[in-house]
Write a structure and sequence with these properties.
The chain is α+β, with helices and mostly antiparallel strands. A hairpin with a 4-residue loop joins strand 16 and strand 17. It is globular, with a radius of gyration of 24 Å. The protein starts with 20 loop residues before the first strand and ends in a 9-residue tail after the last helix.
Length: 470
């Protein structure tokens, strides 16, 4: 549906049962769905329950339409056909947006321009702010370079840190009037203080324990903020075209590269992959989606993994052999995370099998705090299997003792972390016999097939999908 302003205050909704991954289907009858694109940007306002989409490349032209997806309604609203006509940015792609939920502001910077466009339009880098309460654009700068910020860049990264109240911009390729592929210049690290309305270049002190001899100057990378002054950087490639392996962490308060104990790179051999990330504030984990770089055709599905920044341990969540429906490999897409419900959303992008094909599909990924049914979920499933065996034996006293002990502990642990036994607390408050009946419903006996299926699920939950049955 078309609307000037969608619902801005988020109504309460019950927490749904977790579906690890699902496609959000396009309702063509309503004629309210953004057209196919790549190189666009998404931002999620978790307080209001709205995902904003702006810009992108259709395959023929840059787009300047501005959309809002109301999460709890599952509907897209077109805010405007042209943000530029309402004082906002012109049609563009390869730009970046970030959001401050606390301030109710959205920020936009950068774009790609070819040589012909640069000759006509120049290379000034504008900086825009969108007020999510008033639904109004404002130009903060007509030339960030003149104001002490970055030059015109594309394929950079931009995040907002709520604790510092700063917009932070890292990397990207600088576009000069005569820039060419053979002469690639990368941008550095800049911050914009929203209170002082001032840009500054951030100088970083390097530590040998960080694993990096210098701040990565790159493009095509992924950056997230923990909203406490820490930046996490993954992937990308430098001016020489070499992929950057490993996770780089920047402490913005101390302006140093933080120490990373071990090399936590998920798949060091997969230098052909590109990454998109979101940060889980509750567990201090990075949710990482891996896809193929442009030019590498693949029919595989997008892989998902979670990196715990406390232990620096990776947990695979979804991979190309996963049985559930998964989005196809793609690049030039974007993602955002709804912190209120721990859901990650992706939209569109370029298909790897045919880089000329732009996508308009939308996917929702729900993770629990341990990375979507991790080790605690595996323990709970194994104990549930043990409960079923006891239930089958007819020993009521053993069933009740197991429920009051290990089964209760497993359920409460997973439930407290947002896991797979949502609603179990309601059962535990009732009679133990009712709990046993509910949990063992549909038990098909001690079949070999059922045990093999359980083994496959547990192997995937603990991060070893290649494990072999004993």
């Amino acid at each position: 549906p078309n609307a000037t302003k969608p619902q801005s205050m988020r109504p309460p909704r019950p927490r749904p049962l977790p579906a690890p991954l699902r496609a959000i289907m396009e309702d063509k009858s309503r004629c309210g769905w953004p057209p196919s694109r790549g190189g666009h940007q998404l931002c999620c306002d978790s307080e209001r329950g709205i995902i904003f989409l702006f810009g992108g490349w259709s395959g023929e032209e840059d787009l300047g339409d501005f959309w809002a997806f109301v999460i709890d309604e599952g509907l897209w609203y077109r805010i405007s056909n042209s943000a530029e006509a309402e004082g906002g940015p012109s049609p563009r792609s390869c730009h970046k947006m970030c959001i401050s939920t606390n301030r109710g502001k959205l920020y936009c910077l950068g774009r790609y321009l070819d040589r012909r466009q640069r000759a006509v339009q120049g290379t000034s880098c504008e900086f825009y702010e969108f007020d999510m309460d008033e639904f109004r654009w404002r130009v903060l700068s007509t030339s960030t370079l003149d104001d002490g910020g970055p030059d015109l860049v594309y394929d950079h990264q931009m995040v907002y840190d709520e604790s510092l109240q700063q917009v932070v911009v890292l990397g990207g390729r600088i576009l000069g009037p005569t820039s060419s592929v053979s002469r690639t210049q990368m941008s550095g690290l800049f911050s914009f203080d929203v209170g002082a309305q001032k840009w500054s270049e951030v100088q970083i002190v390097y530590s040998p324990k960080s694993g990096f001899s210098a701040l990565p100057m790159c493009m095509g990378h992924s950056v997230v903020s923990d909203n406490q002054g820490m930046l996490y950087i993954l992937g990308g490639h430098g001016s020489d075209g070499q992929m950057i392996c490993g996770v780089c962490v920047i402490d913005l308060r101390r302006r140093v590269l933080a120490e990373v104990p071990n090399d936590p790179f998920y798949n060091a051999s997969a230098s052909h992959q590109m990454y998109r990330m979101a940060f889980d504030d509750a567990t201090r984990s990075l949710v990482v989606l891996a896809g193929e770089r442009p030019g590498r055709k693949s029919s595989a599905a997008t892989r998902v993994a979670v990196l715990d920044t406390k232990t620096w341990q990776w947990t695979p969540v979804l991979h190309s052999q996963h049985s559930a429906p998964c989005p196809m490999m793609r690049f030039a897409y974007h993602l955002c995370r709804d912190a209120a419900y721990g859901e990650v959303y992706i939209f569109g992008g370029n298909a790897n099998l045919d880089s000329h094909t732009r996508l308009s599909d939308m996917w929702q990924l729900r993770l629990d705090s341990d990375g979507a049914c991790g080790r605690d979920g595996a323990v709970a499933l194994l104990r549930l299997e043990r409960l079923k065996q006891l239930y089958r034996s007819g020993d009521d006293s053993a069933v009740l003792a197991f429920l009051r002990g290990k089964m209760r502990d497993a359920i409460e642990t997973v439930e407290a972390e947002g896991g797979i036994f949502l609603g179990a607390r309601r059962l535990l408050c009732g009679g133990m016999r009712q709990v046993a009946m509910e949990l063992c419903r549909g038990f098909d006996g001690d079949s070999v097939r059922a045990r093999q299926a359980l083994f496959d699920v547990v192997a995937e939950l603990v991060g070893d999908p290649q494990a072999v049955e004993p």
